[in-house]
Prior knowledge:
It is a single chain. It is built from 5 helices and no strands. It has a domain at about 5-45. Helix 1 (about 10-15) packs across helix 5 and helix 2 (about 20-30) crosses helix 3 (about 30-40). It is mainly alpha-helical.
Amino acid sequence: MPEKNARLTLTKLRQRAGLTQQELASAIGVTQKTISIWEKGSVEPKLTFEQTKLLIEVLNCTLDELIAAIKHST
């Protein structure tokens, strides 16, 4: 992973996109509580390909950034 991704988290990606947890949850078809759990690192997201694609689009990030954010959130 590139060094610039070392500090990315799901929370930072969401905030960078200007979204609330509820807005992100609605965009990918999960609950706000699920987003909260993911951001706290309690559970690693189990995403479908479609959800992964939506997350990348909604968060306006690359796949590498998303992977780094998930890795650093858990």
